[in-house]
Amino acid sequence: MTTSPTHGTHGSPARSATAYGLVSFAAAMLLITAVFQLLEGIAAVAKDEVYATGVDYAYKLDVTAWGWIHIVVGALGLATALAILTGQVWGHVIGIGIAAVSAILSFAFLPYYPLWTLVVIAFDVLVIWALFNQISSDARR
Length: 141
Description:
With 141 residues, the protein is mostly helical. Helices cover 73% and strands 0% of the residues. The protein has helices spanning 13-46, 63-85, 90-108, 114-140. Helix 1 (13-46) packs antiparallel against helix 2 and helix 1 (13-46) packs across helix 3. The longest helix has 34 residues, at 13-46.
């Protein structure tokens, strides 16, 4: 059943506003996560004594190396968030990928700064959820 854009469920103004809101939410969350990644990376590169390394961990890298990894992922996330905010369709798919990579890297960074890392992972999950929701609603139209 196809309906008109102003009277049906597929193209209703309320649905468009919700879709726009989800995309804006995802972009804002990705932007915040990218800034967190950048700050985490800068702190690790500038002064690696900021992070405690109390336990042996399977994914043990030098903290400075982790810092550069976080800076790169943060910069990519920042660029992707800006692409999503400017309406670039490719930004949605890349945003899911960047958020997934960020969550995996944050999990590996968990022993160095557990609370901060859990916050970043939670934000990444919200980004993935919002972007997947938007992509799936676009596919249903």
